[in-house]
Amino acid sequence: MTPDDILARAERALERRRPWEGVWRDCYDHVLAATPGMGGPALFDGTAADAAENLAASLLAELTPPWSRWFGLSPVQESAEPGVAAALEAAAETLQGHLDRSNFALEMHQAFLDLVVAGTGVLLVEEAPTGEASAFRFTAVPLREAVLEEGPSGRLDTVFRLVRLSAAAIAARYPHAILPPALLRPQDPEEAHRVIEAVWPDRSGHRFCAMLEKDGAGTVLAEGRFDGSPFLPFRWLKAPGETYGRGPVMKALPDIRTANKVVELVLKNASIAATGIWQADDDGVLNPATVRLEPGAIIPKAPGSAGLTPLAAPGSFDVSQLVLSDMRARIRSALLADRLTPPRDARMTATEVLERSGETARLLGATYGRLQAELLTPLIARCLSILRRRGEVPPILLDGPGDSHAARIAYQSPLARVQGRADASNTLLFLQAVAALGPAAAPVVDIPAAARYLARTLSAPSAIIAPLPPAAVPPVAGPAPQPDQESPQA
């Protein structure tokens, strides 16, 4: 695409996004406190804000726990040489080390917060300059800066980032760019300029172009090619035909508005109950404008007049507590505050805890599957691509044909282990049933194969699994991994 094509396509995508912006603004205004001076409705109830923050933190802890292995790499062929499994385990350890030394946990939590509130999050994965502690640099792209397009495969493969940067920031981010003379000698150093970063797929990967927009014309700042897109947009759920996702806050927004209004009315009623509503005869002596209702005050009145008397309240406002309790329970249920938090009942048995974990996995099954396809797998692939180009890991073909270079991702996060424990439990129940049938049924079960299946299901380390003999499974030929074609300028 030419610069003019990129500008036109970004504007069309921005027009298609505008109907969503009002709903997003309402979600942010009622869940996250508005920036001082930016306006927005007054918040009186903090149930939604607390539940949204807990859900974002729970997603981080359940899917990508910091300083903990939440993924593994294992050969596609079980009969692969022992050195292949060891090399993949070393590559996974190297990747985990770089993630731990980077700002991944900080930015991932902010991206999850966007996901919970607006239903769509965007994570930018860039290669850090040589010499830094980690090879990765992560950025949670605010949804207001991201304009997305869905490709034929249903993935958000085209991303336009609309950001405003100062001249100094543009020069720092694009050191090889040829900037216009007016930008090199700005009259106002703090003036922000509109920059468009576009990533779109082509036959050999993803193309990248960054442009400075001025008066409807674009000046190219940087161009390049990526093996995998550095922008990782992901969604909570989506309706058919829609591009952007829908989050739990969007579903609970009517209840959030109602709870906020009920608390506001309760506070107003409490103020009336504390100070009262008063009436007085206009006798020429009492001036209501100068009356101060405070302890020890002396209020004059004319002889024979009623003076200042309280006005009875029209009725009771106790029903508000019933409405408020119902609204808060619905908000916590929609934001899974009662599902992802640890059980507080000390009398719960181990079976009850497992059933609770299984119910959580069922509730998040569709969402977890979408996050795995749109966030976790592309994230690992993008990070391995960077490390492979640096020479820190060997060439690895993720989820490819069964050759010696092919590897599969084994997710080991707490949420992934819940399903693994359920599958392992079913397998152990079958083995117990076979053992109860007697020696005649024993030949039906391949015990070594069952042990290997349990090892895969429970994410056991590959170092403790004995390799199969090379002749046990015939090798399957497959294409060799392709080198990363990412442009150094990008």
Explain this structure:
- The protein is an alpha+beta fold and 490 residues long.
- Helix 1 (3-31) packs parallel to helix 7 (248-275), helix 2 crosses helix 4 (104-118) and helix 9 packs across helix 10 (365-390).
- Helices cover 43% and strands 17% of the residues.
- The strands form four sheets. It has a five-stranded antiparallel β-sheet with strand order 4-5-6-7-8. The protein has a three-stranded mixed β-sheet with strand order 1-13-12.
Strand order of the largest sheet: 4-5-6-7-8
Question: What fraction, in percent, of the residue positions are helical?
Answer: 40-55%
Broad shape: flat
How far is it from the N-terminal to the C-terminal residue, by CA? 17 Å
Count of individual helical segments = 12
How many strands, which pairing sense, and closed or not: the largest β-sheet?
Answer: 5 strands, antiparallel
- By DSSP, the count of extended strands is 13
User: Which percent range describes the beta-strand content?
Assistant: 15-25%
Parts with pLDDT < 50 across at least 5 consecutive residues: 471-485
Average pLDDT works out at 81
Oligomer: single chain
Topology pattern, helix = H, strand = E: HHEHHEEEEHHEEEEHEEHHHEEHH
Class by helix and strand content? alpha+beta
As a whole number of angstroms, the C-alpha radius of gyration is 30 Å
